[in-house]
Amino acid sequence: MSKESQDLQDLEDLNTEEVVAEKPLQKLKVKKNETIIEVEKKTKKEKTPKQIEAFNKAREKMLDNLKVRKEKQDEEAVIKRIELENKIVSKAIAIKKKEIKKKAILDEISDDDTSIEKIKKIAKKISTKEAKADEPKSFFEKYKFV
After folding, report:
1. Neighbouring C-alpha atoms within 13 Å toward the C-beta of 96
2. Rounded distance, CA 33 to CA 25, Å?
3. What does the alpha-carbon distance between residue 109 and residue 116 come to, in Å, rounded to a whole number?
4. Exposed/middle/buried for residue 10 (C-beta within 10 Å: 0-12, 13-18, 19+)
5. Contact (CB, 8 A) for 106 and 127
6. Rounded to whole angstroms, how far apart are CA atoms 108 and 102?
7. How far apart are CA 126 and CA 52, in angstroms?
8. How far is the CA of 10 from the CAs of 5, 15, 19, 30, 136, in angstroms?
9. Is the pLDDT of residue 106 over 70?
10. Coil, helix or strand for 13?
11. CB-CB contact of 20 with 28 (8 Å)
């Protein structure tokens, strides 16, 4: 009978294990003497020397390209600055020439014995040019609608 009783006990144990497996929401009691196994984190695969060498080579190439781009940008900035300075100087020269021409016209008129009517006409032309430049434009003159 002992064999049969042992078989019955084994069956009951199996039944209780199945019940525990069927009910995962129940808390399992962990005894104090049992050890808990810690799961180790996977370590990254180490790079081979060839991979490290290729990475370093690519990094050097990237840094060289970065230096080349920086130098190119600096050169373009210098060229733009020089062009801007030349443009400003040429505009200043043009303005100065216009002033000299205006003074020459006025000096030429005052030296001559020209009539007052001619002087008034010239002064009127000059004043109208200045007035047009100073006068704010209307909305429709300022913007062109196409």
Report:
1. 6
2. 23
3. 10
4. exposed
5. no
6. 10
7. 77
8. 9, 9, 14, 22, 106
9. yes
10. helix
11. yes
Flag the least confident range among 17-31, 53-67, 70-84, 104-118.
17-31
Task: Compute the average pLDDT of residues 38-60.
Answer: 88
- Within a 10 A sphere around the Cβ of 126, how many other Cβ atoms? 13
What are the C-alpha distances in Å from 76 to residues 34, 67, 128? 74, 14, 43
Q: CA-CA distance, 34 to 113, in Å (whole number)?
A: 125
Tokens linked to 79? 């060229």
Q: What is the pLDDT of residues 50-77, one digit of tens each?
A: 999 999 999 999 999 999 999 999 999 9
Count of CA atoms in the C-beta half-sphere (13 A) of 48:
3
- The DSSP 8-state label assigned to residue 64 in this structure reads H
Name which of 145, 105, 134, 135 is nearest 122 in CA terms.
105
Q: Picking from 1-15, 33-47, 55-69, which range would have the lowest pLDDT averaged per residue?
A: 1-15
